[in-house]
Amino acid sequence: MRNLWIFISRYNAFFLFIIFFIVGIYLTVKNNSYQRSVTLNSSNEVVGTAYERLNVFKRYLNLGMVNDSLAAENAKLKSQLLALTTVDTAKYVKVVDTVTNQQYTYLAAKVVKNSITLRNNVMTINKGTVDGIKSGMAVIAPQRGVVGFIRDVSAHLATIQSLLHKDTKISVTLKKNNALGSLVWGDGNFDIKKAFVKEVPNHIKMYVGDSVVTSGYGSFPAGILVGKIIKPNVATNDNFLSGELNLFTDFSTLQYVYVVKDKKAEEQKALESLVKPNE
Amino acid sequence: MNSRIIIVNVIRWFLLLFVQIFLLKNMGFYDLSTPFIYVLFLLLLPFGIPNILLYLLAFGTGLTLDAFYDTMGVHATACVVLAFVRISFISISLNRDAIDDPEPSLSYMGFQWFSLYAFLCVVAHHLVLFFLETFRLTEIGYTLMRCGLSCIFTLLIILLVEFIFYRRTPR
User: Fold this and answer.
1) Cβ of A24 and B87 within 8 Å?
2) Average pLDDT, integer, range B108-133
3) What are the CB-based long-range contacts (under 8 Å, 24+) for B24-30?
4) In 3D, which of A13, A8, A21, A9 has the Cα closest to residue B90?
5) Chain A within 8 Å of B74 (Cβ-Cβ)?
6) Are B72 and A17 an interchain contact pair (Cβ–Cβ within 8 Å)?
7) Which residues fall within 8 angstroms of residue A26, CB to CB, at 6 or more apart?
8) Residue A137 to residues A154, A164, B108, B151, B171: CA-CA distances in angstroms?
9) Residues whose CB is less than 8 angstroms from the CB of residue B21 and which lie 6 or more positions away in sequence, other chains included
């Protein structure tokens, strides 16, 4: 111990240098937004790439299940296709041009990192600005269910603020009567299969088994199935009702997600920004 | 004697920072060459100063500059590096017991020693400063050019100031 002290005091210039240098770098990175963003992005890139490599192996484990779900989805799409192609065109059918008028397009992305055990969960996907992903886009699960929002984007990767995060709030409606509410997770419940619908007006009646879908007011398209009510009409102290619901999304086995690109998002944002806050 | 050194250094600190912030901050050749004359204060601190005090002064001076340049921490880090180079260079080039000069200035130490000393310290300071400022390696050529040109500018001004305040002392 004494030798250690002698060693430190002999080379005190060097140790003091290390301490002050670290403090200086810390201040630089903490207080300058550009330096901070560079640090965060490059570390994200490194971590993300590492996880991507790791996932090449992990993917094989769930291959069977993913195959099944893809087959099921395929079958569903095929049956829809069949329904579309067998329309009797002789009978005055109005053709809607879905290519030029389509508002939403989906982009499939692979989850390279997922977390479900934290209070605020964030996942990483392997698509980035190169693929046209922007911060704030909605992300949905392959079959049914919502996942979250795009949070930060680098060139080839993006992070998703998942529904399992305290700041995530998604506008939803009860499918039966279009009553608006907002979907949140947490609040004393950290079960990844459950979430809450809050801020439903008091006069609405909820029943067990009611479907909850997205409202289409945020960046999510309308009508995406979110879950089913399991505990309706939980009175809160304000003028609103809450309900507990079972999520359709299984966050623990999520492998692929769809990022929803909204063609009119920027137009809508620009238009709505004309409204002044306290008008 | 002791209080005289303190007063001289305090006055020097204010003068150099005043010049740096109000004059040299607005100067520069095409954003390529910016002089940082305030390092002269750290260069001219007396020989007998304890390391911890030197580091604290360097860090504090850097932070003051940062406050005016809006680059929290960048100058402070560069100044700490300069302090380290200063301590290392002095301990390597001079015999600690034989130092009887009060401060490492041009008048006491001679042109050769002082110019090498100033060169090493300024280069270390500017390298750290410019790389922390750009914070990426993709523009390394441009950064190095800025760094080199700024070093030349700073060194010229430092030598100029030292020659202006040159006092012939018996060595």
Assistant:
1) no
2) 91
3) B25/B68, B25/B69, B29/B149, B29/B153
4) A13
5) yes
6) no
7) B73
8) 14, 16, 67, 47, 74
9) B65, B68
Residues of A in contact with B62 (CB under 8 A): 24
* Side chain identity, residue A69: S
Tokens of A64: 């069977």
Query: A170 in helix, strand or coil?
Result: strand
Q: Is B44 on the interface with A (CB under 8 A)?
A: no
| pLDDT at position A83 | 67
Complex ipTM, two decimals?
0.82
3-state secondary structure of A117: coil
Chain B positions touching A38 (Cβ under 8 A) are 135-136
Distance CA B24, CA B158 (A): 13
What is the distance between the alpha carbons of residues B13 and B16, in angstroms, rounded to a whole number? 5
Residue-averaged pLDDT of chain A: 82
Token pair, residue A66, equals 């993913």
Minimal Cβ distance to B73: which of A12, A24, A34 = A24
* Amino acid identity at A28: T
Residue of B nearest to A34 (CA): B135
Q: Which residue of B has its CA nearest to A29?
A: B73
Per-residue pLDDT tens digits for B50-94: 889 999 999 999 999 988 888 888 999 999 999 999 999 998 888
Interchain proximity A32–B72, CB inside 8 Å: yes
Q: In this predicted model, what pLDDT tens digit does every residue of A192-231 receive, in sequence order?
A: 888 888 888 888 888 888 899 998 888 888 888 889 998 8
Distance in angstroms (rounded) separating the CA atoms of residues A112 and A255: 8
CB atoms B74 and A28 under 8 Å: yes
Compute the distance between CA of residue A241 and CA of residue B98 in angstroms, rounded to an integer. 84
**Domain boundaries of chain B, sorted by first residue:** 2-164
Q: Which tokens sit at B85?
A: 């180079």
- Cβ distance B58 to B85 under 8 Å? no
- Name the β-bridge partners of A229: A245
Is B156 an interface residue toward A (CB < 8 Å)? no
Establish if B55 touches chain A: CB-CB under 8 angstroms: yes
The CA angle A107-A111-A117, to the nearest 5 degrees, is 135
Tell if the CB–CB gap between A27 and B76 is shorter than 8 Å. yes
Spatial separation of the C-alpha atoms in residues A160 and A135, rounded to whole Å:
9
Q: Is A215 helix (H, G, I), strand (E, B) or coil?
A: coil
Q: For chain A, which residues lie within 8 Å of any Cβ of chain B, measuring from their own Cβ?
A: 12-14, 16-17, 20-21, 23-32, 34-35, 38
